[in-house]
Specification:
This protein is α+β, with helices and mostly antiparallel strands. The chain has one domain. Helix content is 18%, strand content 22%. It is built from one helix and four strands; from the N terminus they run ββββα. The strands form two sheets. Strands 1-2 form a two-stranded antiparallel sheet. Strands 3-4 form a two-stranded antiparallel ribbon. It is flat.
């Protein structure tokens, strides 16, 4: 959840994790968070609804691990079952060019 400062131009001053309710600010005071977004369209029971969750790093990767586990449980006895457990098999993890592929992290 974005916390905004009241005023003429609303400005986000913090982002609070929607799971643990803690600030996502790092040691330098910068918000570090991931988002989960859904936009439901025609034919969905939730047509027209949009959802956006803000998650701190710990909660984001806990959710990713839980989704990976649920996926693995569905195919654990199949040939591809163990392939799901490798780090790059789930999600679309990339390093941005701005970060130089992780040199600044």
């Amino acid at each position: 959840m974005k916390v905004a400062q009241a005023g003429e131009h609303e400005m986000a001053i913090d982002v609070v994790c929607d799971v643990c309710c803690m600030s996502t600010r790092n040691g330098e005071g910068e918000p570090q968070y991931g988002t989960m977004h859904a936009s439901w369209g025609k034919g969905s029971a939730h047509c027209g609804e949009e959802h956006e969750l803000h998650l701190c790093e710990r909660c984001f990767f806990s959710q990713v691990a839980e989704m990976k586990r649920a996926r693995w449980l569905a195919v654990m006895f199949d040939e591809e079952g163990d392939a799901i457990l490798v780090d790059d098999a789930y999600g679309r993890a990339t390093k941005s060019a701005k970060e130089g592929g992780g040199e600044h992290c």
